[in-house]
Amino acid sequence: MKLLTITVPCYNSESYMKRCIDSLLAGGEDVEIIIVDDGSTDGTAGIADEYARQYPSVVRAIHQENGGHGQAVNTGMRNAKGLYFKVVDSDDWVKEEAYLKILSVLREIIGGDRVLDMLISNFVYEKEGAIRKKVMTYHSALPQDEIFTWDKVRHFRKGQYMLMHSVIYRTRLLRECRLELPEHTFYVDNLFVFQPLPYVQTMYYLDVNFYRYYIGRDDQSVNEAVMISRIDQQLKVNMLMIDYMAGRVVPNKKQRSYMINYLDIIMTVSSIMLIRSGTEEALMKKKELWQYLKKKDAVLYFKIRHGILGSQMNLPGRGGRKISVAEYKIAQRFVGFN
User: pLDDT tens across 167-216, in order?
Assistant: First the structure.
C-alpha cells in the first residue's frame, strides 16, 4: 500500500501540468499520483498517459467525461490506494525539501501507535508579478511537530484558515464521512476541507512551505472577474456549507468555533463578490443568502451576522457597501489573493 495518494485534476492543462507532476515525482515509490483527465480537449490526455507509461509504479492516468473539479477529486478519492490523500491542482506545484519532510513524518507516524487524521502544512501564494510572496502559516495557532487534538488549538486570526492546499487527510476518514463533491461546480475545495472536520480528532502541523499556489491566469477560478461571473456556483457551495453546519452538534468548542469562523469567511467572500457585482439582482441574492442562513439556523445566523465580518458585509446603503469594498481591497493587498 502507498503512503500517500496525490490526485491532480486536469482540464485542458497541457501548458502547465508538467511542472506540477514533475514536482510530485520527487516523492518516489511512497507516493501514488493519480492524474484525472476531466474531459480535456487539448493534449492533456496524451501527457497523462505518457507519465503513466514512464512511471507505471507511481503514476496512474484516469480519463473521464467532463464533470468539473469536484468530480475529478471524487474520482481520485474513489481510486486512491494511499493511506493519506492530497489534491494538488494542475497549475500548482510543491517544494521538494518540504515534500520529503512531510513523507518522512507520515512514514514515522504510521509506524507508531496513534492514528493521524489530518496533517497541516503551509502554502505560498505564487502570485504572478509579485516580488514578495505571501505565506500562509499556522504556527501562531497550532502546536508543531507533534500529534495533537482540538483542545491544544490556539486562536486562528481572521483570514488564517486551512485551505485544500494546507491539508492532507487520512483516506479512510474521507470515505467514512462520505465526502462527495458536486459536479460542474467551482469552489468545491472549501467543501473538501470543511465537511471532514467533525471527523478529525488528531492533527499534526509541520511548519514547512510545501504547496505553491499559483495565481495569475486570467481564466483562473479565483480571479475576481471570474468569481463574479460564476457567483451562482460560489453561492451553491456556500449554501451547502450552511446545510452541513446548520443544527450540527460539534461537542468540542474549539472545533465548532473553527468551523463557524470558516463559514463566516465564506459568507464574507460571497457577500463581497455580490457587492462588487454592483447589480440589483446581486444585492438581492446577497440578502437571500443571509436569509437562508437565518432560516436554517437562527443561532448560527446571529453569531455570524453580528460578528466582525458579518457586520462589515451588511453595512446599510450605498455608503456602507463602499466601506465594505474598501476594507476588502485592503485585505486583498495584504493577503495577496485574487
Answer: 999 999 999 999 999 999 999 999 999 999 999 999 999 999 999 999 87
Amino acid at 304: I
Residue 296, CB half-sphere, CA atoms under 13 Å: how many?
A: 20
CA 91 to chain CA centroid, Å, is 14
Show the cell assigned to 109: 507516524
**DSSP code at position 162:** -
- The Cα–Cα gap between 83 and 105 comes to 13
Q: What is the pLDDT of residues 286-305, one digit of tens each?
A: 999 999 999 999 999 999 99
Distances (CA, A) of 47 to 219, 220, 300: 21, 21, 47
Q: Which domains does the chain have, with CATH numbers?
A: 4-215 (3.90.550.10), 224-335 (no CATH)
Nearest by Cα to 214 from 114, 314, 127, 98: 127
